[in-house]
């Protein structure tokens, strides 16, 4: 997959301009089921037209540049993860547009000129609610009106489940609440956090539950504190596990806020310090709490482990 970073005003090599594209356009945070419908439609159109497929996304999040949000925005998929996910969808090219103040001032007509026509886009696919240009004045109806025969347009309708529209906002709320089964349903896959295994306090080993202490990749969102049934990718193989996210109140002063991600990997006995891993989150088993002594904690961890085993047995 070819990744091309663009900044307004941008210059493109002639060979890039000569390549025609079927383009899916959007921010695509999470690359959830709704996003996949847009991207897969663009790929199908590329096959029909015998041209390359492309995705246009933006970095950073527009709200960071434009403001107007009270809450802090976090990414479901930081850019590197988003690119990995798009590559798995067999996208040929990704345009990453640097979202700046100058870019935000472009009129809809200017956006189409510089980022559609100048890129030799022959077909544009986006969701029904995609907007572009200053103050979001451009919509997909206007995109079609301004094509002047240069490109075709496909609009993907709202994708909903039994509750409401599938959206990145819903996924963020579910992540904050630790509702990982809902997150997995909305994404169409487990939420994943890449990281590296680092040295911890090794207390789990003394209790009979050795854990991999995972330092998450910078920028990743960590779900709500608690105990989860997870899978972990180690050396290209997935293993079931139980993960504790939190501050270990049984051992640590609650005023010392050091968030940790510790995974007890089932049926596993290897030294993996320094290994890059990916944690896939499946179900929240319980909230984190303080126990009255080590024995009570060990008993609860065994119960958590059995719940995780039973969950993955049902999932098969």
Automatic annotation (TrEMBL):
Keywords: ATP-binding, FAD, Flavoprotein, FMN, Kinase, Multifunctional enzyme, Nucleotide-binding, Nucleotidyltransferase, Transferase. SUPFAM superfamilies: Nucleotidylyl transferase (SSF52374), Riboflavin kinase-like (SSF82114). Gene3D superfamilies: HUPs, Riboflavin kinase-like. The keyword Kinase applies. Residues 186-313 form the Riboflavin kinase domain. Pfam families: FAD_syn, Flavokinase. Its EC number is 2.7.1.26, 2.7.7.2. Pathway: Cofactor biosynthesis; FAD biosynthesis; FAD from FMN: step 1/1; Cofactor biosynthesis; FMN biosynthesis; FMN from riboflavin (ATP route): step 1/1. GO terms for molecular function: FMN adenylyltransferase activity; riboflavin kinase activity. It is an enzyme of class 2 (transferase). It catalyses: riboflavin + ATP = FMN + ADP + H(+); FMN + ATP + H(+) = FAD + diphosphate. InterPro entries: Cyt_trans-like (IPR004821), FAD_synthase (IPR015864), Riboflavin_kinase (IPR023468), Riboflavin_kinase_bac (IPR002606), Riboflavin_kinase_bac/euk (IPR015865), Riboflavin_kinase_dom_sf (IPR023465), Rossmann-like_a/b/a_fold (IPR014729). The keyword RNA-binding does not apply. Belongs to the ribF family. This is Riboflavin biosynthesis protein. The lineage of its organism: Bacteria, Bacillati, Bacillota, Bacilli, Bacillales.
């Amino acid at each position: 997959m070819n990744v091309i970073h663009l900044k307004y005003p941008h210059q493109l090599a002639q060979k890039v301009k000569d390549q025609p594209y079927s383009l899916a356009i959007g921010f695509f945070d999470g690359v959830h089921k709704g996003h996949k419908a847009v991207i897969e439609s663009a790929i199908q159109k590329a096959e029909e037209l015998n041209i390359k497929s492309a995705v246009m996304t933006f970095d950073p999040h527009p709200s960071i540049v434009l403001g107007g949000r009270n809450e802090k925005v976090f990414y479901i998929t930081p850019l590197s993860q988003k690119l990995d996910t798009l590559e798995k969808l067999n996208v040929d090219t990704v345009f990453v547009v640097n979202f700046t103040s100058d870019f935000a001032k472009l009129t809809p007509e200017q956006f189409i000129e510089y980022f559609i026509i100048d890129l030799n886009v022959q077909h544009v696919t986006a969701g029904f609610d995609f907007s572009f240009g200053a103050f979001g004045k451009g919509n997909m109806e206007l995109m079609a009106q301004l094509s002047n025969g240069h490109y075709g347009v496909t609009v993907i309708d709202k994708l909903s489940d039994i509750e409401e529209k599938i959206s990145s906002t819903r996924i963020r709320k579910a992540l904050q609440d630790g509702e990982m089964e809902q997150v997995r349903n909305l994404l169409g896959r487990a939420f994943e956090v890449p990281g590296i295994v680092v040295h911890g306090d090794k207390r789990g080993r003394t209790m009979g539950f050795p854990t991999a202490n995972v330092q998450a990749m910078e920028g990743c969102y960590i779900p709500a504190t608690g105990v989860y049934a997870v899978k972990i990718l180690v050396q290209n193989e997935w293993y079931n596990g139980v993960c504790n996210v939190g501050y270990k109140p049984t051992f640590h002063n609650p005023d010392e806020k050091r968030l940790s991600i510790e995974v007890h990997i089932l049926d596993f006995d290897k030294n993996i310090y320094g290994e890059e891993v990916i944690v896939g989150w499946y179900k929240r088993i319980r909230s984190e709490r303080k126990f009255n002594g080590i024995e009570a904690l060990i008993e609860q961890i065994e119960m958590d482990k059995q719940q995780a085993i039973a969950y993955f047995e049902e999932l098969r």
